[in-house]
Design goal:
The protein has two domains: 207 residues, Spore Coat Polysaccharide Biosynthesis Protein SpsA, Chain A, CATH 3.90.550; 71 residues. 52% of the residues lie in helices and 14% in strands. The longest helix is centred in the C-terminal third of the chain and has 34 residues.
Length: 287
Amino acid sequence: MRKAFEGLRLELILVNDGSSDRTLEMLQEESESFADVHYLSFSRNFGHQPALAAGIEHATGDAVISLDGDLQHPPELIPQLIERWREGYDIVYTVRMANEGHRLKEFVSRSFYQLLRRISGVDISPGTADFRLLDRRAADALKSCDEHFIFIRGMVPWLGFSKLPVPYEAEPRHGGETKYLTGSMIRFALDGIFAFSTVPLRLISLLGALTVGLGFLYGLYTLGVRLFTSQAEAGWTSLVVVILIFSGAQMLSIGILSEYVGRIYEEVKSRPRYVIAEASPAMENQP
């Protein structure tokens, strides 16, 4: 491990995303004991992506490596990332291989990234993780993307630059339980879709054209029945079905529009993605 860092100046930035345990106290102790260990502590929980962005934005090295603190991203892989960076790659990202016992989660994850890749045009690899190395110019380019709803897994491939994937197998969680539950994962997925694609808006137009077409055909049908047959049309069932279809289409359209409008609303307020309540002395003068 040490050989991979020869000739490099190291700094370790730990981000405390509003934890309620002894995390901050332990970070303070580590920072006091080691000069190259720094920390940022948020005033509350702002989420995984803002915490990740904070670490990248405050890093000052020629390359930045990000990974989660639960040790499911194996630190033993860092020398390989550095070696590939030395070969000239600006972005060296890791791709998680399938995990035993999590088949359903892996299937849903890969299906989501395949869908996102299709509708956004951004080459997001299935199984991609937030364990990656960014060259300084790639990290600076990412910092310039001042978005409130940041989706780093999509923004990194969107930047371009030369990149190389490195496969890995996720390790068991080192301790505690994940706070990234189903609701958080759904919000994370929605951020990715609405941040990188206008396809849902186009689907509204398609849905509107489809419902209008169906309504027109149904109108021709009822007119034909009235003019050319003697059948009595009570119409209640068909009327209710039509109303439900059109009402459902309208509500779905409004829901999609509200997702975009809500994100525009948050962006124009220009609030920061996170608030730092405390930082190690070396970090206090950082942007």
